[in-house]
Specification:
heterodimer, A: 6-stranded mixed sheet, B: two-stranded antiparallel ribbon, 11 helices, 10 strands, globular
Chain lengths: 646, 324
Amino acid sequence: MSKTPDINTVSVSFAPMDITVSVELGATILDAARKAGIIVESLCGGDGVCGKCRVIARRGLVEGGTANFLSREEIREGYVLACEARVQSDLLVEVPQVSQMRPRPREVDIAEQRLSEDMALQRQPAKLNPLVHKYGLELSKPTLENNGADLDRLVHALGKINGTGEYQMGLKATRSLASAVRSANGHVTATTAYRGPLTEITDVVAGDSSKVNFAVAIDVGTTSVVAHLVDLTTGQTLGASAKYNGQAVYGADVIRRIMYCSEQPDGLMQLHAIIIDDINTLIQELRERFRLAPKCISLAVIAANTTMVHTILGLDPSYIRREPYVGVAYQPPPFRAAELGISIDPRGLLYCLPCVSSFVGGDITAGILAAGMHESDEPRMLIDIGTNGEIAIGNKDWMVCASASAGPAFEGTGTRDGMRAMRGAIDHVRGWYGGDTLSFSTIGDAAPNGICGTGYIDLLSHLLRVGVIDKMGRLNMSCGSDRMRVNADGTPEFVVVRAGEKGAHRDLAVSQDDVANLTRTKAAVYAASKVLLNSLGLSRSDIKEILVAGAFGYHLDLENAVAIGLLPDIPGESLRFVGNTSVAGAKLVALSRERYQESQDISRAITYFELSTSPIFMEEFTSACFFPHTHIEEFPSVKIEAVGGR
Amino acid sequence: MNPSELSLGWKAAVNEVVIGATAAEGGTRGKTVKIGGSQCVPWLGFDGPVGHRPALAIEIWDCGGSSWVEQLQEAYGASISDPVEWAKAAAALNPDLLCLRMMGTHPSMDDSSPAEAAEKVRAILAAVDIPLMIWGCDVDEKDNVVLPKCSEAAKGENCLLGSAKEKNYRTLVASCLADGHKLIAESPLDINIAKQVNILANDVGYPLENIIIYPTTAALGYGSEYVFSIMERGRLAGLSGDKLLQQPVLCDVGSQAWRAKEAVASEDALPGLGAPKERGPLWEALSATNYLQAGADLIVLRHPEAIRTVQQSIERLYQTAVAQ
């Protein structure tokens, strides 16, 4: 390539990252950002429909990108949508914090805390029996009388600890055997990995390093990735790290990502590389924090939805999206982590928690395992509120599960001023300070710049209570609040925070469309649980306990979640928040071969209930598109409150 | 087997609702009408109390009936052009109520003012002494200014006003509360929405016990089986204990039946179906008696002949049911 500046290329610099890239004239700022490795928040993947990729063109010329989503003031300040603005000259682009996907360190802390809470976990591994075990062995010295092969003596020594078993061994490990058993006087460390009825001896090294054996348990969500570092010799969790799933640039939900894989020639491998990179970033962070060499981590266990499992393994997910909705593999065997580019011990293995179907993944298997539903005498219900609302009901004898596309409204997308649970997000609304000022808190106590899921749940509940929205979810222009206004589309919206209030740099409002989206999301979750109960001929009172999993952690206000009809109206003691059960299940499996086997059994025991073919789902959904629900008798506590408050 | 052994033993009954107020009750009506109260599958007297006879209302318009079909014009004669005279003629047919529809306020009809509408209401209340239903022209913006005035004009008369819909209920509900009227809650053939309108009205303080459900009505041959099944489902849910479906149900048969071509077409156009003079009222009556079987508590009709037929039908059904 010529070194003289090409008339058709321009350079684009990004602040505050201070990265400059050359792109062709007319490329979009989003293209340039991708090239620079800068992740600009983009939910629609560049279709120009989400309005999230706001950047400021500081110096230079751009064309387009101001048509939608931006206010007059923002356009004056130079805001453009990165996916639509085309570069016309050398350019300096400022990426405002709210548009940056990569959280800053302090935000990571918060994200970690929120996303990885698993303290409510009731179950511990039955006994420590990790999927990958390191044994410190002393092999008997070979003599003329006792002249068994090195491998025989190794298997014999393992057998003395473990009883007899079927062992297999790869070529590489076998070749290393001769020197390993001789260079430290017969003292070796043998690493064994569980492969069902067989045990693989993955590695044999000289000396005793059996006390250095770590695993990473990873929850790969559509939106977030969380990793926990676990000491396999003690069962202790040492630390956690979290980040956003870098694939989000290519679409907020799994369907968009599958489409990207099917439509782009190397789309799958691109998404594969991104998620592997995310996983490696987290592992590296943990390794650096605990000063561990890659070699020390001999196991990775992943709990992820079916589409994520496909992109992690590089399996074509195209057929998940098309009738009859079939994936490549639901119960993938363990693979050598190095084969996938995951940077742990090159001999280390990667296990995926088994999936149930194309839309019910290993995250749900992990949830059931962690919550212990499969051991329960009485039926329990697990509700995992994510982009897909997943519901499982069951006990030790049977389990059914359904998945409803709830939409990402509680995850900060699909709403005007929604954001993820990160710094500056309004996470709780407590009502009004006397007159007209809303009392709320933000994550990290920062200036508010958006509303996250728990914030919306509180907000809806309060707006209902004071009559700003009615039970149909319609904003009431005549409610008397001076925070009601008509927005540019001519529809009403309620201003939650005014620019300048508590340091907010713009108005944050909830629009009629937002309420409609949130209503549909909560209705889908509730309707799914109802249909599943109906299909089993059970009523809510037959359910011993409802376990609520998901990124809300413990931050969800139960009363408000019931008041808007997201969760069934049951006594508080029958409802338990179980936090991130996905990572909790992955850890259980890492620490116990029995639990891994259980997870396989769970995935095979679950009956998947397809909601899209259920004639009553639409009916239930319609009934649930109301606050709290058309059948108010299902919400006795809400009813009492309404009557009492009047 | 004794039929009473087949009784399903319902937990709840349809609400009893009184429309109209006599002088003793603060109004000027000569009588009141009570509907609802049944606690059985319609007309199965052995299943539980049958409740009150379904009531019949005759529909008239505030602007006269000059746009109505010939058969109806003939039936009422010259009186149809003057709402007060028409009201008197209708009352003479001995219905339980009069249903005054404010079509004259419709922007594409006379677009008459709220004050004019209120004046009509006063005049009709003065002319006849049976209980009154007042129904808007079904243009929300107009109804929201007209109905409050009509409501005020009829204050104390305990009328039945309609209709509150999921997208427009606040104004009417507030008027009915202020002026002591019963309320029609309308829904588009959807049980969920029927319940939701009731909740919404109740939320702004209106008692569920004063609501009449209007689930939308279709004429015979135009989807009446669908209406029938919606009414049936609603009734069974109400009897089973759903408080939001225990309201009496209104069927607006007249306006629908007279839109059916079978009711109005000439003998040349529909050979073999008989003369329209008889066919029209019969079509209306059959549309109505169908809904009696689904549990209709209040039926709005237009043709005097249809009213007579349905009255007889109700009497026979009632006598048979109470004898069980």
